[in-house]
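tmp note - SnoaL-like domain-containing protein
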Amino acid sequence: MTVDEKIAMLRKLFHAFGSTGDVTHLLEQLTDDAVYKVSIGPGTPLSGEFVGKEGIAGYFRDMHTGVEHLALNVHDFFANEHKAVVLGDETLRTTVGGVVFFTEWATVFTFRGDLISHVLVIENLGALSQALGVPHASPPAATA
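out:
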């Protein structure tokens, strides 16, 4: 898959999710052992690594127990032979307490051949942690 083909596929994926919430296209583009991770500490519906197509489908199914998407904006797509990065922002509302917050995000896609093997979403979801009463994650302690 060329760089342009990767970007075209990701544009289609984000268009489907942004317009209807449909993740079918994403699931079709994943390796069987793909990993999906969001940069949020433990204790929320979005925490941890979601592995395989079923696990990742479960993430998107359960995501709405923590947040509701009010707006999703995609700004830029960058790619090379093995990775792609998509930049954007979103406005979310927590399902507990109804807190509305804005966050910018970067999603890093790692490819194995023509399929996505790893997705890392980097964004500040501290408002979700706070709404759920989950303490903010601390960096791991340094070992001597």
